[in-house]
Structure formats: structure tokens, C-alpha cells
Design brief:
Blueprint (H helix, E strand, L loop, with lengths): L3 E2 L2 E4 L5 H4 L11 H11 L19 H17 L5 E4 L2 E7 L2 E11 L3 E2 L8 E2 L9 H8 L4 E2 L4 E4 L5 H4 L3 E9 L6 E7 L2 H10 L10 E5 L1 H15 L4 H6 L4 E8 L7 E9 L3 H7 L6 E7 L2 E7 L3 H19 L2 E6 L1 H8 L4 E4 L5 H11 L7 E3 L12 E2 L2
Helix pairs in contact: 4-7
Length: 391
């Protein structure tokens, strides 16, 4: 297998790492207050915030924001902000309210990944990719000299063989994350080649080899793949083999990590016609979900086959919006959803998919419905710390 790649990881050499690291761009997409607080906290400090595009602002003068991001990336590179390089994997220990989650920052070969629904590649998407979401993200990435990943991959290692073989080296960073993100520690992996062998051993005996499933950052990885395919056709055969854009930086986490909580992604329907929406909402089955209206919740029946139930629900939401107007947002965390419904709209809190069922669902049924699951609460998402050149 050639799925894994040892990257040259760029690490910031800054005084305030808590101001440097910020949460994934696709979080808190209906909460301007969250991102305004991050901006106030960062201020004029050197920060990854100035290198990413929070999706809450995707419709807010995107051309100017993208140009400024690319300019800041080049400035940081030229001024030596990324003063440390690591040619290895990095062991990441992230402590949140759920416990300590352990991952490995590594790179994957995009030739070994596909976001096609029925792909049989070693790295597969887990949910349907919305193709119209890719072009604006391509605009963000296509001229960027570096990438900062919030992508998290899952691997199926019930025996813990990968992490058990890791030989720890020096500590690369250890600090508190802002906005209640917990604490994070990064450690140099001294035996990266051995770790790669352990990863590949997970595929031994498999007929339908799936080494990694995309847990978070599905559209970001799909964008990286799209940009690589666009670039690849312009390169010589020699450059195709080694070009840095061919390899995407990610964090890989064992699906059985005890601090990795599978959480459903809830639906928030922004509509001024709540009564009509509720009258047309029909759910049934052996499972259970919860409805949130006016800041209060109630239980409703739901399909015991969760993916099937989500497809039906999303179909109704799409039809309702088409006929009546409105908008749907995807919310991580029940508390935030209930808070939003106190002001307007309808929330539907979905049941979670069991971790033990996850890989088999992908192998046998292909992609899950988009926004089916999330790994933990919004403040537990991967923060941007490391970077890698893609030009």
C-alpha cells in the first residue's frame, strides 16, 4: 500500500500558541458571537485565524477575504512564522470534557482517496459530498501556498496496535486552547516507518480494503482532491509523483478511542412558518429523536435504521424549503440548537450511530447521508496548529 506519506510539517514559532490555534472553519456556522469572540481574543496577534475562512462568512465579500488569506500565508512564510519543521508524524493528545483523544498527524496520498459514493479506495468519504460546495472551497485553496487541516480520519483498530507501537520523542507543543477547547499536546514520533507498517497491517486479510474513513472535514478533503486533479494534468510524470499538493495533511484517530464520542448533527430549520412545518413533519419507527421549538423539547418517533430515517427527514426539509422558503443549518451540540430555537425556527435532534456499526455501514452501503454524524461537540473539533506546503 502507498496510502501514507511522511510529510514535512510546518509548526509555528510564536509566543502565544493559545491565540495561534483556532477551531475548525465549519463550526458554529450560525453563531456570529463565537467567531467575534475569537477575533477579539486574537486581535493583532499572529494566528491561524488569519489563514482560514470561517464558513459563517462565506457570503461576506469572499474574494477580498481569500486574497487577504493568501497574502497573509505568504507573509507568515517569508517572515519565518513557521520557524519549525518536522519530518515525521506527530502524536496529538487532546483533552476535552470527553477525556483525552489520541491521534496522529500524517499525510495521505490523494491518489488513494475518492469521494465518489461507491468508491473502493483505501481512504473513503463517509457521507454524500455536495458538489456545489466544492467550487467556493477550490477558490480558497487553489492559490494558497500552504494548507492547515481540520480533517480527521478514522481507522478501525480494536486492538490498539498502531498507538501501542509509537515511540515518543520530544514534546513539540503543549498548551491550552481558546474558547473552551481544552488542552492539546503534540509529540514527535521517532519511529514513523514502524507506525506506517502497523497501519498497513490493519488491512491484512481484507478483501474490501478501507484503511481510513473521513470523520471530519469531508468537503475539505474533497476540495484537496479536486485541486490535485486540476493541477496533476499540468505536471510532468516526475512531478506528479512528488508534488506536495498530492499529499494532504490529516489527523488519524482510532474509532475505538474512548474519548471519541459519536454525536449526531442536528437540523435547524429557519422558517417563519413553524406550524406548517410541524404539521407536515411525519416521522415513525422504533427509534427516537427530539423536536425543539421555542427553546423546549419533546420526543418524536424515528426510523430505527438511522441513515434511512435521516434521508427521509432531509427529503421533507428540502421539499418544505422549496415550497415555503427558509433555510436549513446543521448544528453540533443539542444545547446550541435549543438556544437557537428559543428565538425562531425548528430544531430536530437526531439519534447517534453506534461506532461499532460505522465501518461496516460504509463498506456495505457506501456514503451515509450528509451531515449524519459528528465526532464530539463543536468545541472538541480539531484546531488548526500544523501546516504543510502545497506549492
Amino acid at each position: 500500500m502507498n496510502t501514507l506519506h511522511i510529510p514535512e510539517i510546518l509548526l509555528p514559532d510564536v509566543a502565544d500558541m493559545s491565540a495561534w490555534a483556532v477551531n475548525a472553519c465549519d463550526q458554529f456556522t450560525s453563531d456570529y458571537g463565537y467567531w467575534h469572540s475569537v477575533e477579539a481574543l486574537v486581535g493583532d496577534k499572529v494566528s491561524a485565524l488569519k489563514l482560514i475562512f470561517p464558513e459563517i462568512y462565506l457570503k461576506d465579500n469572499p474574494e477580498a477575504r481569500i486574497a487577504n488569506i493568501n497574502k497573509t500565508m505568504r507573509t507568515y512564510l517569508n517572515k519565518g512564522v513557521f520557524g519549525r519543521t518536522v519530518n515525521s508524524f506527530i502524536l496529538v493528545e487532546r483533552t476535552t470534557q470527553s477525556g483525552t483523544r489520541t491521534g496522529l498527524v500524517l499525510a495521505i496520498d490523494l491518489e488513494e482517496y475518492s469521494f465518489e459514493p461507491d468508491a473502493k479506495t483505501a481512504v473513503r468519504s463517509t457521507e454524500a459530498t455536495i458538489l456545489e460546495r466544492i467550487p467556493p472551497r477550490v477558490e480558497i485553496r487553489k492559490d494558497a501556498p500552504i494548507e492547515l487541516p481540520h480533517i480527521m480520519l478514522l481507522y478501525d483498530d480494536a486492538d490498539g496496535r498502531v498507538l501501542n507501537c509509537v515511540k515518543r520523542g520530544k514534546t513539540l507543543y503543549d498548551f491550552d486552547l481558546n474558547m473552551d477547547g481544552g488542552r492539546v499536546k503534540g509529540t514527535y514520533v521517532e519511529n514513523t516507518e514502524r507506525v506506517i507498517e502497523s497501519f498497513y497491517s490493519l488491512a491484512e486479510g481484507q478483501k474490501n480494503v478501507m484503511l481510513f474513513a473521513v470523520g471530519d472535514g469531508n468537503h475539505s478533503l474533497a476540495t484537496a482532491k479536486t485541486c490535485w486533479e486540476m493541477l496533476k494534468s499540468t505536471l510532468s510524470p516526475e512531478l506528479v509523483k512528488t508534488h506536495p499538493a498530492r499529499f494532504a495533511l490529516c489527523e488519524a484517530v482510532n474509532i475505538y478511542d474512548p474519548a471519541l464520542n459519536f454525536e449526531p448533527i442536528h437540523r435547524f430549520i429557519k422558517t417563519g412558518n413553524i406550524e406548517k412545518f410541524l404539521k407536515g413533519l411525519k416521522t415513525s419507527g422504533s427509534g427516537k429523536a427530539r423536536l425543539a421549538v421555542g427553546g423546549k423539547t419533546s420526543q418524536i418517533a424515528f426510523d430505527g435504521n438511522i441513515p434511512q430515517g435521516i434521508r427521509a427527514l432531509d427529503g421533507y426539509i428540502s421539499q418544505f424549503i422549496s415550497e415555503n422558503g427558509g433555510e436549513v443549518d446543521y448544528i453540533h451540540g443539542a444545547g446550541g440548537l435549543i438556544k437557537l430555537t428559543a428565538e425562531s425556527g425548528v430544531g430536530i435532534m437526531l439519534p447517534p450511530i453506534a461506532k461499532a456499526d460505522f465501518f461496516n455501514l460504509i463498506k456495505t452501503g457506501g456514503n451515509l447521508p450528509r451531515k449524519t454524524f459528528s465526532m464530539g461537540e463543536g468545541n472538541e473539533k480539531r484546531y488548526y496548529i500544523e501546516a504543510k506546503r502545497i506549492k
